[in-house]
Design a protein that fits this description.
The complex is a heterotrimer of chains A (318), B (534) and C (564).
Chain A (H helix, E strand, L loop, with lengths): L1 H31 L4 H6 L5 H11 L5 H13 L13 H36 L4 H15 L2 H15 L15 H7 L1 H26 L3 H8 L4 H30 L2 H7 L4 H10 L3 H28 L2 H4 L3
Helix pairs in contact in A: 1-14, 5-9, 5-11, 6-9, 7-9, 7-12, 9-11, 9-12, 10-11, 11-14, 12-13, 13-14
Chain B lengths: L1 H15 L5 H10 L4 H11 L9 E6 L16 H10 L4 E3 L5 E3 L2 E6 L5 E6 L13 H9 L17 E6 L4 E6 L6 H4 L27 E7 L3 E6 L12 E6 L3 H10 L4 E2 L7 H5 L4 E6 L4 E5 L10 H9 L3 H8 L4 E3 L23 H10 L6 E6 L7 H14 L3 E6 L5 H4 L9 E3 L5 H8 L14 H12 L3 H18 L2 E7 L1 E6 L2 E2 L9 H5 L1 H4 L1 E2 L2
Parallel strand pairs in B: 1-10, 1-11, 15-16
Antiparallel strand pairs in B: 2-3, 4-5, 5-7, 6-7, 8-9, 9-10, 11-19, 12-19, 13-17, 13-18, 14-18, 20-21
Helix pairs in contact in B: 1-2, 2-3, 9-11, 15-16
Chain C lengths: L5 E14 L2 E14 L3 E5 L6 H7 L8 E3 L4 E4 L2 E2 L5 H7 L4 E4 L3 H4 L6 H5 L1 H5 L5 H14 L5 H4 L9 H13 L5 E5 L7 H17 L3 E6 L2 H7 L2 E6 L2 E7 H6 L4 H7 L20 E9 L5 E10 L4 E5 L6 H9 L6 E6 L2 E2 L9 H6 E4 L3 H4 L6 H13 L3 H14 L4 H4 L9 H14 L4 E5 L7 H18 L2 E6 L2 H7 L2 E6 L2 E7 H4 L6 H8 L8 H9 L5 H6 L6 H4 L4
Parallel strand pairs in C: 3-9, 3-10, 7-8, 8-9, 14-19, 14-20, 17-18, 18-19
Antiparallel strand pairs in C: 1-2, 1-4, 1-5, 5-6, 10-11, 12-13, 12-15, 15-16, 20-21
Helix pairs in contact in C: 8-9, 16-17, 16-19, 17-19, 19-20
Classes of the chains: A mainly alpha (318), B alpha+beta (534), C alpha/beta (564).
Chain lengths: 318, 534, 564
């Protein structure tokens, strides 16, 4: 266990370094965009006078580096400052949004992961059969369709034609859990379709990869039935790549679903980020990007630890 | 008989929806073979019923951002504008029929020189939090946009206001530096709601308190808001018990929500899907002429646009009808090169429509010695849907006249800083302004900061000044007609069209006979003017 | 149950493999008859098709191969080629069992040994779980595994190779099959461990009167195990005879050539007596991999110019680590390496080009040591260019010369790629690459282990000839004592990172030995079919392999005297 803790520590340290670099990159990318925050707030109606006044109020008249380090100093203590546009605390602006995103990601993952792995095992077992080919075509189709397109298709059938689910995933505070699941079903389903394919194919590949192993041949020569060869002998050794692809997809579910949020009007963090970028609301952009980067790093870390924990050599040392 | 019955059914529908007047209804009914008394009876049963109270009204609203604010000086997005008309009151309002009506001010009057305006406040007007709306609140609210330090975008509207006086009798007087006959119209601007004053003379906009028809319950910018009716509202209407505004920025999602009934109404429908939506029996589309405009200002002080022949050639080289049809799918009103929409007061009906005339355009172009030369029109996709396509279509029209227009596509970001007022000819979108005076003062007056065509015309400026002080409506109409003619024939702005406001309702959501041209959604007073027909 | 009953009858077995989009014959019509309780050795070099026949005996064709329709495989009266897959599968594990070459790879790393052991009996409902586990423990005991009660509850990686191989034999026995296919079960093991496994396998096969097909390339091993021997070459039978007859009197030339492999011996060379310093001198070297335990402990030995020092020892004894220290890949934590009496920089990055060229390496796996995408001319030409600065025609001439040296026709091989060559040819290219630098010293790391014996012999002869011609010194790392006998001048025996004994070859192969050397030497199987029996009688069944190692007394005078 000591080794694992050390590894976690190393990765965390490395991750923090990456976060720092990312924060720098984001900051100066935002700086490079034409027009500044004040211009974005006042829009077409800006005059030089009130632009200058607003810039002063927002502190934009100070050099970029000074503003960056100011902000970084706060961020170290989880204080992301206040939104440059509304003056609200950044945590208040994006906190609930992030929880919403996490909820949707969890909802989709809870459906997608078991389906993907079960299907992956099935197609590995029935590889090169019609079922395998149909599953391949279906997953390739869903993987190569843009998610907003999948979303519209689902809306067309489930909301417009059959009226089974609402087309917009509006949330309100008094909603009970069942209602919440019902209202967010279509976006979750869209995400499921997008990620299942990837995870399923990786599960299939990981298992088929192992089928050439001597211990698989040994199992076959012991008279073990094909399904058991896959489930009992191949799958337990295939977890490491599967966990990695699951982690990658979870990260995607959290950071990459702006389009789904837009299509289903789901108040997630992706929309908040897009808003913030278009308004040059730098503190919010920074915080969102840091959250995204941290999500990626944490999930990768979790995948590493998961891979280690499923490796019997490391779980049961000599 | 069958055909007649069908006709009568359609008439009944039209009557129910308020699409047809009583007189027309009677005429058509009798033409379909009905007796006058029967027709009168039918009108009675079908014609639009009195508004009913009740229900929770759900709206899909476009253009809402998580960076939206309640600060009146910084309002910009459609969600903010819809919100401010729902929770707050103004001194005056533009009625559904486009006329000016009372809001917090019951009545107003000016001194003959139109330099001092006095507004008498409605004694019943109350903030949601309890206190009455006072002259003090009005003054604080106006001062929010005045002074050197204000960040308000409405600062320019009130620069001519020298002083606002509390008359002590529940009335206020605006003292102006010059005559301004339009002040009551200006006060309908969405930046100018009345908020409760703090003791230090600032206003408390942060709380969301106001004296509007609905009280906000939950508000999450970029997501939506819920409201309940404010029972002590001083106005008439507010038929819904509760409201749910939902930000739906994606046009497809908004329209789908309307189709599936997830919302009762949706703002800003996409023009290209209008035909489709109009075929849906559950949905009614409102297509309302507006004061918005798409303009193409040429810098009149910059060659070759300093030559009137060049300007006129370019004005004649555009086929406006074609652009309205192909770019807006009919959801627009053709422009006539003066910035005065039919949705604005004092619209001069008698100015002839400028037609597409490639021959004359070509002749003028050659006369100006421009043959073989190219002019560049800057545009960006963010100006309006199809903006770039419109510019390209225009260049095709101009080619017929032998005029070369190069369409320069600019990035969306920074367009207002780097292109507008900078490039000699570009494409611009303008929001609706309440009066021609405001519009002309803002963008056509010779010393206006936003004089986007850098146009100087002494007679025009003189008339503008004269109009500001003219309290007689007939005379004012004459003034604005002449100004229209001058800017149409001498000005530097090509105006292809005035975009219409297009929005949709589920059939059970009813509206009054007219829809305000001031903004989307009945001037964003839909929440207080519309009702459910249960 | 008479020994005369035929258990397995294979006639006209043809197996095809799919390559380059056509089916190619791998096994070209082999007949085989095996009686109950009989052990048949299948012997041949790689590519002879031994394993393929073994699998076919279970009615199993590996992925990408197929058994042709005119073959017949009759197991105990049942025709496997026409049986359904279900019927065939029902035989596997229960009536025909399989013991694979590498137990370490053939046990599933994710499950405990005993769970894998009991999988077949539980599946065939022969035993209940508790019964099956008790039976497993019983088999572990019979196979003389340490801690039989407990060892089954470990994971494969927690058990040593020799023990795993026995556990796999136990697993094969779990359903008391009629036939076991042993597919090179001891090839991956060290010699001392091999004995235990061989003894255990022979006992258990005897005890249960199980028939077996014993597949191996090692003649001495098969001599101990088999009743009859069948020799295979390229998918065809060469000859078959009872063991004693086959050993004494092989009929076919091919068989005779196999028997003659171990004839090559290079003449013994001696250290110079004129006081010239050794070419390489390893002095009191300790080494460890980052943060790990000490892998080398006070290792010292000398290598003189033009001589071959064989470093022998079992896996993990520190042979390869020593080579890494000499080549500078692993700087020692203590001690030093001298080159002609001068200190050699410990890290190769600090060595000059001239110093680097002196010391080259040839690797075990020629396959992985050569870049498959690079032409032979470039593989050999690059070091020639790097060290000698040759270009153009001179470079080409040098490459031709090197190809001549390794007995490959330059015009034929100059532009070819490694995958087009056989294993022996690849190893020759490896040698030429080492020679290109014009070294004085070459480390040969198990260079013949992966090769068939005839090919290996050729490589040894080549190395010997080159040594004489070019005055090369070799450090010859091997675990195979036969190789040591044929090529070494001096021998260094290593165990647990220490040098336990060293000296000239002739001394090393004559008693008295250090007990470990003794054990090592006596554990090498001989061509005598009674060798194992005799050895076990001499030493006692419980005094082989790990047990024997444990009994080496530290007080033995030879042990005490190894500190040179």
């Amino acid at each position: 266990m000591g080794d694992i803790l050390k590894l976690v520590g190393q990765r965390l340290g490395f991750g923090l370094g990456i976060l720092l670099v990312i924060s720098l990159i984001i900051f100066f990318m935002v700086e490079l965009l034409p027009g500044d925050m004040a211009q974005a707030v006042l829009g077409q109606g800006a005059t030089e006078e009130n632009l200058a006044a607003l810039r002063r109020e927002m502190g934009l008249d100070r050099p970029a580096l000074v503003r960056y380090f100011d902000w970084l100093g706060g961020a170290i203590f989880f204080d992301f400052g206040s939104s440059a546009i509304t003056g609200e605390r950044v945590s208040a602006v994006i906190g609930q949004r992030f929880m919403n995103t996490l909820f949707l990601a969890a909802y989709a993952a809870v459906i997608a992961v078991p389906i993907a792995i079960t299907l992956g095992v099935l197609v590995a077992l029935l590889r090169n059969t019609l079922f395998d080919r149909v599953a391949n075509v279906a997953t390739l189709t869903s993987i190569s369709s843009p998610e907003f397109f999948l979303g519209y298709i689902l809306i067309l059938f489930f909301a417009v034609k059959w009226g089974m689910f609402p087309s917009i995933a509006s949330l309100s505070s008094g909603m009970d859990f069942g209602e919440l699941l019902y209202r967010t079903f279509l976006p979750a389903l869209t995400l499921v379709l997008v990620v299942v394919a990837h995870m399923m194919r990786m599960t299939r590949a990981a298992i088929i990869n192992l089928l050439a192993s001597p211990y698989i041949e040994m199992a076959r020569l012991k008279g073990v039935p094909p399904w058991r060869v896959i489930v009992r002998h191949a799958l337990p050794n295939a977890w490491a790549p599967i966990i990695n692809v699951v982690a990658l997809n979870l990260a995607y579910l959290i950071t990459g679903v702006v389009l789904v949020e837009v299509v289903f009007v789901y108040p997630g963090i992706g929309q908040a980020l897009v808003d913030a970028v278009s308004k040059r609301d730098f503190p919010v952009v920074q915080a969102c990007c840091l959250i995204f980067a941290a999500t990626f790093i944490l999930l990768n870390l979790a995948a590493d630890v998961g891979s280690i924990l499923t490796n019997p050599r490391l779980r049961h040392p000599k | 008989m069958k055909k007649d019955q069908l006709m009568l059914d359609r008439l009944a529908d039209a009557a129910r929806e308020g699409k047809i007047s009583r007189r027309s209804f009677m005429n058509y009914s009798m033409a379909a073979g009905m007796t006058a008394s029967a027709a009168t009876g039918l009108w009675g049963t079908h014609a639009k019923a009195e508004p009913k109270r009740g229900g929770t009204y759900r709206v899909g609203q476009h253009d809402g951002n998580s960076s939206d604010t309640l600060d009146p000086g910084l309002l910009q997005s459609n969600f903010e504008i819809s919100l401010v008309h729902t929770i707050r009151s103004f001194l005056t309002m533009i009625n559904a029929d486009g006329t000016l009506g009372p809001d917090l001010a019951m009545e107003w009057s000016a001194t003959p020189d139109a330099k001092e305006w006095t507004f008498v406040l409605n004694p019943n007007a109350t903030f949601h939090s309890g206190p009455k709306v006072t002259a003090n609140d009005v003054i604080a609210s106006m001062n929010h946009h005045r002074g050197d330090d204000t960040t308000s975008a409405a600062k320019a509207l009130l620069t001519s206001v020298e002083e606002i006086r509390d008359n002590g009798d529940h009335s206020v007087t605006f003292v102006m530096s010059g005559p301004n006959a339009d002040l009551p119209w200006l006060l309908t601007d969405y930046h100018l709601p009345i908020c409760p004053a703090n003791e230090d003379g600032t206003i408390n906009w942060q709380s969301g308190d106001g004296s509007g028809p609905y009280r906000v319950l939950e508000l999450d910018f970029g997501v939506g808001a819920t409201f309940e009716r404010f029972e002590d509202w001083h106005g008439e209407g507010a038929y819904f018990d509760a409201l749910e505004f939902q930000v739906i920025n994606d046009p497809n999602a908004r329209q789908t929500a309307l189709i599936t009934g997830d919302v009762d109404a949706a703002s800003l429908l996409e023009n290209r899907t209008l035909a489709l939506l109009e075929r849906n029996p559950d949905i009614e589309v409102d297509n309302v002429a507006s004061g918005q405009a798409i303009t193409m200002p040429m810098h009149c002080d910059t060659a070759p646009f300093d030559n009137l022949d060049v300007r006129m050639a370019l004005k004649l080289a555009i086929d406006r009808e074609d652009i309205v049809e192909k770019i807006t799918y009919g959801a627009a009103t053709v422009g006539n090169d003066f910035h005065h929409s039919p949705a604005m007061p004092y619209f001069p009906e008698d100015i002839p429509q400028r037609e597409y005339d490639p021959e004359q355009a070509g002749a003028l172009w050659r006369k100006a010695g421009m043959e073989g030369q190219t002019v560049t029109l800057s545009t960006a996709e963010s100006i309006t849907t199809g903006a770039v396509d419109a510019a390209i279509l225009y260049s095709e029209h101009a080619r017929e006249a032998g005029i070369n227009i190069r369409v320069q596509r600019e990035p969306n970001d920074g367009y207002w800083a780097d292109v507008w007022l900078v490039k000699p000819w570009c494409m611009v979108t303008w929001g609706a302004r309440p009066t021609p005076d405001v519009m002309y003062t803002l963008a056509y007056k010779s010393d206006a900061a936003w004089n986007e065509s850098r146009w100087q015309n002494d007679r025009f400026n003189e008339l503008l000044l004269q109009g500001k002080g003219e309290l007689d409506d007939v005379k004012r109409a004459e003034i604005y007609a002449e100004m229209g003619r001058i800017s149409r024939d001498d000005g530097g702005t090509v105006i292809p069209y005035f975009p219409n406001f297009v929005y949709g309702r589920r059939k059970h959501t009813r509206r009054g006979e007219h829809l305000s041209p001031a903004w989307q959604m009945d001037g964003y007073r839909h929440a207080s003017r519309w009702w459910f027909d249960t | 149950m008479s020994k005369k009953d035929v258990l397995l009858k294979i006639r006209n077995l043809k197996i095809q493999g799919y390559s380059n989009e056509t089916w190619v014959d791998i096994i070209k019509g082999v007949d085989l008859t095996l009686h109950r309780g009989e052990v048949m050795g299948l012997i041949g070099e790689s590519g002879a098709g031994k394993s393929t026949i073994g699998a076919a005996a279970m009615g199993y064709a590996r992925d990408g191969t197929r058994i042709t329709e005119d073959s017949t495989i009759e197991f105990d009266g049942m025709e496997l080629t026409t049986a359904t897959e279900e019927e065939r599968r029902a035989l596997r594990g229960s009536r025909i069992a399989y013991v694979a070459q590498s137990a370490a790879a053939s046990f599933n790393p994710a499950h405990k040994l005993i769970d894998q052991h009991t999988e077949a009996p539980l599946q065939y409902r022969i035993k209940k779980r508790m019964e099956a586990q008790e039976d497993a423990v019983d088999l572990y005991r019979r196979l003389r595994l340490p801690n039989p009660e407990e060892i089954g509850f470990r994971y494969p990686h927690q058990v040593s190779g020799g023990q795993l191989q026995r556990a796999m034999t136990a697993m094969a026995m779990s359903c008391r099959p009629d036939l076991i296919i042993f597919d090179e079960p001891t090839t991956a093991l060290d010699v001392t461990t091999q004995i235990e496994v061989l003894a255990a396998i022979r006992d258990i096969v005897d005890q249960f009167n199980t028939a077996a097909l014993y597949i191996t390339h090692d003649l001495a091993v098969v001599a101990q195990m088999a009743d009859t021997i069948k020799v295979l070459l390229k998918g065809e039978e060469v000859e078959e005879a009872p063991t004693a007859q086959m050993l004494d009197n092989p009929k076919e030339d091919y068989t005779k050539s196999l028997w003659a492999v171990r004839s090559f011996t290079s003449p013994q060379r001696y250290r110079p007596t004129d006081g010239t310093p050794p070419l390489i001198s390893v002095k009191n070297v300790d080494a460890s991999y980052t943060g790990g335990e000490k892998v080398l402990d006070d290792v010292s030995f000398d290598i003189y110019e033009g001589m071959t020092v064989a470093v022998v020892g079992e896996s993990g004894s520190g042979k390869s680590t020593t080579a890494r220290v000499i080549t500078g890949l692993l700087p020692p934590s203590k001690g030093e390496v001298l080159f002609k009496g001068e200190p050699f920089p410990p890290d190769y990055r600090q060595r000059s080009r001239e110093e680097l060229r002196q010391c080259q390496m040839i690797y075990q796996m020629a396959d992985t040591a050569l870049n498959p995408k690079v032409r032979i001319s470039e593989i050999i030409g690059r070091p020639a260019q790097f060290y000698s600065g040759l270009r153009g025609v001179k470079l080409k001439n040098r490459v031709d010369e090197l190809l001549d040296l390794i007995e490959l026709e330059p015009s034929q091989y100059y532009n070819r790629y490694p995958p087009e060559l056989s294993g022996g040819q690849k190893q020759r290219i490896g040698i030429a690459r080492a020679l290109a630098a014009e070294p004085t010293f070459i480390v040969c790391d198990e260079v013949t282990s992966a090769l068939d014996q005839l090919v290996a012999e050729g490589i040894l002869r080549l190395l010997d000839r080159l040594q004489d011609e070019l005055k090369l010194a070799y450090m010859f790392i091997t675990h195979d004592l036969a190789t040591v006998r044929s090529i070494a001048d001096e021998v260094v025996v290593m165990q647990h990172g220490k040098v336990v004994e060293q000296g000239p070859k002739e001394e090393m192969f004559t008693p008295p030995h250090h007990p470990y050397t003794d054990l090592l030497l006596s554990s090498v199987p001989e061509m005598d079919p009674n060798w194992l029996t005799t050895l076990l009688e001499e030493r006692g069944v419980d005094n082989v392999g790990d047990a024997a190692l444990a009994q080496i007394s530290p007080d033995d005078e030879k042990v005490a005297g190894t500190k040179v």
